[in-house]
Amino acid sequence: MAKTLRTSGDYTVKAGAGYDSGSGTNTIRLDAKTVRIPGDLTVEGTQTTIDSQSLTVEDQFIEVNRNNSTAGTEDSGIFFNQGSSNNQILYYDADQTEFVMGSTTHDASVSAISNITPGKIRILAGTESDQAATKGYVDTTVGGGFSLKVAGDDSTQITVATGNTLQFTGGSNISTAGAEPDTITMSLDNDLTGITSITSDASNGDLTLVANGTGHVVINDTLTFSAMATDPTATAQTKLYNKTAGGGGTGLYFRNSNIGSGAVGELISKSKATALAIALG
Question: What are phi and psi of 271, to 5 degrees?
Answer without folding.
Answer: -65, -40
